[in-house]
C-alpha cells in the first residue's frame, strides 16, 4: 500500500510532460530516467518497506548496483569513471531516484553524488580523486559529508573540529553530527579548522578522512522522525591521522568550497522534492475520488479539488525555478541566490503539500499503512537539512542588500 499506484504515477508523468516544454531536457534525458526507474522498480523498491522497518539499507550493495550502471557518476569526469554528461542529466536522475518508495534512499544517494563529491571533483588533486572519487563513482565506497557538529548546524562558520600538521600528516580532533550514511561510510568529506585566521571563512579546509582510520568512531546512531531507512550518526575523531595529500583544494579555502558544494545539494534536494509532491497530490486524488462521505466522494467537495489544483499550480511554478537553476548551473553561472530561493521554496511547499494532502486522508493518513504518511514524515526534513529555512532567508537578504549587516 505504501508504493505509489501506477495509475497515479502515469497521471503525474502526463501532467508534467504537458507543463514542461523546456529545451534543456531531451529524449536522452528521458531515456536515462526511464532506464533508472526500471532498475529501481526491479532491484530497490521491493525491499524498501523492510529497510524502513530495519532502519537501515545495505548501502554498499545498493551503491554498487547503481555504480555498475553508471548512475553515481553521471556528471563526473570520464577519466575517473564518470559519464561526463552535463549537470542536467544529474537532475534527470534525481527525479528518477525520487521514484524510490521511501525518501531515505534518495537522500543517501544524494550525499554520494551531490553533497560529498562536488568539491572533490572540482578542486581535488589527482591523488584524492583517484583514491576517493573513483571508488565512490564505482559504488565501491560509500561517502558521507562531515559539516554539522553538536552546537554548529546551519551556522557552518562556527564549527569547532580542528586539524594540525604533524610531519606529513593532519591530526584531527572533534566530531560531526547528523551524518547521513555515517555508520556505513568508507570515507568522509570533512570540513575542519586548519589555521587560526580570525576570519572564520578563511580558517577551514576540506579533508578526505577514511572512516576506518584509527581514532574515528561512530558515537551513536540517531533515531529520526522520518527517513527511517537511512542511517544517521554522530561521529567522533580523536587524534585521527591522515596524509596531508588528503586535502581538497587549497588550505583555508574549505568554507568557500563547501558553500559552492551546497548549491549542488540544494538543487538536488529540490529535484527530489518535486516528484514527492506530484506523488502526494496524485495519490490523494486517487484516494479521495473513492472515499465516500455524506453521499459523495471527498474529491467532489469544492474545497478539496480546488485546494489540490492550487497545490499543483504551486508545484509547477517551483518546477520552472528548478529548470532555470539547472540551465544557469550548466552554463557555469553563479546560482547562489537562485539555488537558495529554490531550497527555501521547496522546503516550504513540500511541507504544505504533504500536510494538506494528509488532511484529506483523514484517519488513514495518520497510519503507517499509506504512502502519504511516509511522504509527510520524510519530506519534513527539507526545511531543516542542508540549511534551515531561516538561514536561506538570511542568505537571500544579503544578496538583496536588506539584512542589517549589509545596510551598515
Q: Total strand count, please?
A: 10
Q: What is the 3D form?
A: globular
Order of helices and strands: HHHHHHHHEEEEEEEEHEEHHHHH
* Helical coverage, percent range: 40-55%
Blueprint (SSEs and pairs):
Layout: H1 6-19, H2 27-43, H3 48-54, H4 59-68, H5 87-97, H6 104-115, H7 118-123, H8 126-138, E1 143-146, E2 162-166, E3 169-180, E4 187-193, E5 204-210, E6 216-221, E7 232-243, E8 247-248, H9 254-290, E9 292-293, E10 296-297, H10 302-330, H11 336-360, H12 371-379, H13 389-400, H14 404-407
Helix pairs in contact: 1-9, 2-5, 5-9, 6-9, 9-10, 9-11, 9-12, 10-11, 11-12, 11-13
List the defining traits of the structure above:
408 residues, alpha+beta, four-stranded mixed β-sheet, four-stranded antiparallel β-sheet, 14 helices, 10 strands, 50% helix
Quick summary:
This protein is α+β, with helices and mostly antiparallel strands and 408 residues long. The protein is 50% helix and 14% strand.
Amino acid at each position: 500500500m505504501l508504493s505509489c499506484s501506477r495509475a497515479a504515477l502515469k497521471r503525474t508523468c502526463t501532467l508534467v510532460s504537458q507543463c514542461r516544454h523546456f529545451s534543456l531536457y531531451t529524449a536522452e534525458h528521458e531515456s536515462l530516467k526511464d532506464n533508472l526507474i526500471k532498475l529501481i522498480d526491479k532491484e530497490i523498491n521491493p525491499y524498501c518497506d523492510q529497510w524502513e522497518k530495519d532502519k537501515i539499507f545495505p548501502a554498499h550493495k545498493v551503491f554498487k548496483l547503481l555504480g555498475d550502471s553508471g548512475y553515481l557518476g553521471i556528471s563526473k569526469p570520464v577519466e575517473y569513471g564518470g559519464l561526463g554528461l552535463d549537470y542536467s542529466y544529474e537532475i534527470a536522475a534525481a527525479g528518477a531516484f525520487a521514484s524510490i518508495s521511501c525518501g531515505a534512499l534518495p537522500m543517501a544517494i544524494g550525499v554520494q553524488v551531490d553533497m560529498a563529491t562536488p568539491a572533490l571533483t572540482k578542486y581535488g588533486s589527482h591523488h584524492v580523486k583517484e583514491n576517493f572519487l573513483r571508488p565512490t563513482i564505482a559504488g565501491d565506497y560509500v561517502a558521507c559529508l562531515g559539516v554539522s557538529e553538536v552546537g554548529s548546524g546551519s551556522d557552518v562558520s562556527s564549527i569547532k573540529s580542528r586539524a594540525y600538521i604533524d610531519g606529513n600528516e593532519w591530526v584531527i580532533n572533534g566530531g560531526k553530527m547528523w551524518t547521513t550514511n555515517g555508520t556505513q561510510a568508507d570515507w568522509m568529506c570533512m570540513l575542519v579548522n586548519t589555521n587560526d585566521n580570525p576570519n572564520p571563512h578563511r580558517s577551514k579546509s576540506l579533508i578526505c578522512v577514511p572512516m576506518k582510520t584509527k581514532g574515528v568512531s561512530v558515537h551513536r546512531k540517531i533515531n529520526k522522525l522520518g527517513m527511517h531507512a537511512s542511517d544517521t550518526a554522530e561521529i567522533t575523531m580523536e587524534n585521527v591521522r591522515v596524509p596531508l595529500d588528503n586535502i581538497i583544494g587549497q588550505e583555508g579555502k574549505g568554507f568557500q568550497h563547501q558553500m559552492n558544494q551546497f548549491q549542488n545539494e540544494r538543487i538536488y534536494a529540490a529535484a527530489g522534492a518535486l516528484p514527492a509532491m506530484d506523488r502526494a497530490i496524485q495519490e490523494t486524488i486517487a484516494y479521495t475520488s473513492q472515499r465516500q462521505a455524506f453521499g459523495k466522494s471527498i474529491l467532489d467537495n469544492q474545497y478539496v479539488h480546488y485546494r489540490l489544483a492550487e497545490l499543483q499550480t504551486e508545484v509547477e511554478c517551483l518546477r520552472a525555478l528548478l529548470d532555470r537553476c539547472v540551465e544557469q548551473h550548466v552554463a557555469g553561472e553563479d546560482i547562489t541566490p537562485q539555488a537558495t530561493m529554490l531550497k527555501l521554496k521547496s522546503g516550504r511547499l513540500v511541507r504544505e503539500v504533504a500536510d494538506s494532502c494528509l488532511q484529506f486522508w483523514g484517519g488513514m493518513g495518520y497510519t503507517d499503512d499509506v504512502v502519504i504518511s511516509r511522504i509527510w514524515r520524510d519530506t519534513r526534513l527539507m526545511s531543516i537539512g542542508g540549511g534551515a529555512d531561516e538561514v536561506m532567508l538570511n542568505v537571500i537578504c544579503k544578496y538583496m542588500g536588506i539584512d542589517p549587516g549589509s545596510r551598515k
